[in-house]
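Researcher: Batch entry, complex prediction.
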Amino acid sequence: MSDNDNDIIPNEEKKTKTAAVKSAAAIERLGVAAYRPASAKSASLQATATEDNGRRKRRLGREDDEPKVLITRKTLFRQRELIYITIPFILYGILFYYLPLGGWLMAFQNYKPQLGLAGSEFVGLKYFRQIFKDKVFLQVIRNTLAMGIINLVLSFIFAIGFALLLNEVRLRAPKKFVQTVSYLPHFLSWIIVTGIVRDMLAMQTGVVNEILVGIGIFDKPVNFFANKDYFWWIVGFANVWKETGWNSIIYLAAITAINPEMYEAASLDGAGRFKKMWHVTLPGIKSTIFILLLMNLGNVLNVGLEIQYLLGNDLIRSVSETVDIYVLKWGISQANFSIGTAAGIFKSVVSIILIFLANFTAKSAGEERLF
Amino acid sequence: MSQNNLDLEPKTDLAARVDSENHHTKKRRRKKILLGDLIFIIVNTLILSLMVVVTLYPILNTLAVSFNDGLDALRGGIHLIPRKLSMKNYTTVLGMNNLAIGARNSVLRTAIAATLHLGLTALLAYVLSVKEFVFRKPVSMFYVLTMYVNAGLIPTFLLFKNLNLTNSFFVYIIPGMIAAFNLLVLRTYMSSLPSSLRESAQIDGADHLTIFWRIYCPICKPVFATIALFIAVWHWCSWFDNMIYNRSNSDLTTLQYELMKLLSSVSSQTQSGSAYGSGNQAVAITPVSIRAAATIVTSMPIVILYPFLQRYFVTGLTIGGVKE
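Model: Structure tokens for the complex:
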């Protein structure tokens, strides 16, 4: 993988120059009038940036140093081609990503499709009050949170553990083999995965029951899909089965960035393989773990639709239904758009609050943050 | 140790002795570690082997069931090797008309989406990688926000309905054209290319579309492969849009949705333990074995392909996640 990068990006460009220096050089070369000359402030920033090269705060979706460009008529004219290209993308984004947000109004209306958003009667928070009085909705929130947290914890533990263990394999061929095998389930759809899960857990023919009865944990085969205690864990482990290998990619990449001298130092202190893994590798990927945890916290409520929809049945409905399924049932099946939208809004708002909360906590703890 | 190394004077007897002592203790220590390490290696190998077995067994088992006689499979106890070999399941699956239509639609949507979405996302990523572009930041934010703010199912459903996208093939292709994550990966990659590439072409009088097409596209091939794979996997595996928007039109069905229908009919029947052909020995096809065969057929294309693309998606994920 790194071969490719090296072919394309000359190493000196990537490593020795910081982005700021590079863009400053670009400005000089082009002599573009619109740029401000680098101010004293940014110069000092540059200096600190070069000093602690690797220790700069990482933020997603943002560059650290940007050339300052003034919006003048001249720049706009000079960049007209870029602007023309951008316009359709903005229109597309407004239409498909932002316009639907206007549909949130439906939650505050007694929405009738034939009357439209403008004509429907405004009812304030009526539907929100209604869903919070609905026992099923509260149940659904509990299920979503429970499965979200179980999934988050299990997937982190397994992905990090797998990356750590795989990193300890020294032989190339077995390592590659294990890695390739571990990615395989990611490429199967949830339809196939849930089918496989059903097969494995089946009462008569399933291998799980066969093993559990064989070693004497259960007296007789268990019907996993009729007992409410199992469902959340089935979802959690199905998720682990499907995504552990895929999620570990990022940790394996982070491990390669750890300074080898750290391992040498640890060996001199008498640390064995396990101790090196525990005291060098794991702390070495701490910041990656942290940032991924932040990103995933906002997704806790997005645990799903597909897997619960496919695996749930009437017997265990009270533990299998999630907010998304609630929205689907009210909104699409019963065509009560107002209630569906209200439940959807609740989910989105909680997700956004979670992201900001996580980001704020990270900020005050002096850790990496998203934005 | 380090003191010895720093010492530039010729070694005295004492130094030599210290050296040999160090050597000695080091050797002893290494021996001790070796035992601990050996246990570690054994445990590690066992855990990873278990993982490989847990990952592969269900798939190999499905493969075995798919080649087994349907009624025989109902008795259970088939693990890795078919007990009563039969190709009947495959001939039945490949003969299903719906599945053929579904396969056509799946292949079409995957191919079109992977090309179109990739091309457009890459173009926008190129524009956003031009450092002196005045609207670079606001436009980036505009799309990054879409990662966090989501209108939800119902408003989206009504929008598609109003745009006449429901009940049409376009609902597979038009929405979700620019995914923020893919955009960020591409933009990061393109920003990391030396800007002199673009500038020298600009001095020669090339416009941005030409630079994008003639210079950036060829260079970005590896990362393009990654993103194309992401998009393709997503489209190949998706069925939900089919169920919500195109449920009533069997001409627009996809492979996954057909499989899902097959699966839900199976799960209700295995619960009661009956089979299509029970009593009719000539048929010898059961929903379970049909499902196994359909699963293998559906997952085959990507499962065969992905090991070859492995190094690409590893690169892509690394760019997107850990940016140094």
